[in-house]
Automatic annotation (TrEMBL):
Organism superkingdom: Eukaryota
Keywords, ordered alphabetically: Photosynthesis, Photosystem II, Plastid
CDD domains: SDR_a5
Primary localization class, coarse: plastid
UniProt cross-references to Pfam families, sorted A to Z: NmrA (PF05368)
Name listed for the protein in its UniProt record: Divinyl chlorophyllide a 8-vinyl-reductase, chloroplastic
Source organism per UniProt: Quillaja saponaria (Soap bark tree)
Keyword Transmembrane helix: no
Amino acid sequence: MALRLHAQLVTPGPFHRRHLTTKHSGGNFELSWKRTLEPDILVFVRSVSSSSIGRSYKQPWLTCTAQVQTTGAVNLAPGTPVRPTSILVVGATGTLGRQIVRRALDEGYDVRCLVRPRPAPADFLRDWGATVVNADLNKPETIPATLVGIHTVIDCATGRPEEPIKAVDWEGKVALVQCAKAMGIQKYVFYSIHNCDKHPEVPLMEIKYCTEKFLQDSGLNHIVIRLCGFMQGLIGQYAVPILEEKSVWGTDAPTRIAYMDTQDIARLTFIALRNEKINGKLLTFAGPRAWTTQEVITLCERLAGQDANVTTVPVSILRFTRQLTRFFEWTNDVADRLAFSEVLTSDVIFSVPMAETNQLLGVDAKDIVTLEKYLQDYFTNILKKLKDLKAQSKQTDIYF
């Protein structure tokens, strides 16, 4: 579905065409950006030529289109200056978003959070001292009001599991970037996924890469940060099931992921935000070490003091399930997410050396939390609480 914003909320753009060629799996990807004047639709199509299989084809997974206007842009100058400390966090209730909000408030920023209307209000954000505004990336007309008086947008939003991937992660982001450009936002921080440029067969990763290029082409002053994985996600996936003696799901793949604490991601983000030399750059944040699933499970077992009940899912089953769901239109989105799972369970490493990035940011590698330290603190606190609860239960026993 193409998006069209009101004429006063979009910026004009002259006719131009750009090409970028990159290598992938022995073949060439030709990335074509095209903006035409009539009907003035911005198109991003990735075509693949693979010499290894002797044929050429277009990737069917994603063709992103977004309509833009060429007339009627609002004149923003002269305007009222905005404070550099005024930021809008998009996706503020998520695992990373809430850490961005807390860090920003701790560092003295004026924080506004874009939150979709929901049955359970995001009261914890208000309790922390942030301002909460209701808007929806799927409804472009609700976006402009959230950007009034904002200097910097920090975009860590992603679609909910029950939503089509393109709804928020592409169509909504196109609307947000266009509004930010039209309303004179000074800086835009976008979180992407490591290796997204290497997996066009995975819709979520292709959309992230597509959004990176769309943001770059917009002319906005921006920073793109690619992430490998969150340590916080391992708690519900491994730590809690082991403590509750429930099944832990894993695969037989040797994938390695350099998980990072979202608090460290937030801290490094604001260091980058204040460094003018990083404007327009692509950064990748990775933890100190890349871990396999089995290594994470073994670490959790040791810290919990009990064995895990591991259920192993062969990668071949994931592939078969993905292909099966492709046969039915109503399961297409399930297949898209299985494609992402398949990449995460393939023989790849989601990690990069951080020495150059740490030097650029002026960060000491010793200050980055390791997974051992993170999980040790978690299990120590949880086991202490369980011990205290058990002691309190004994003290309240009544004997006759």
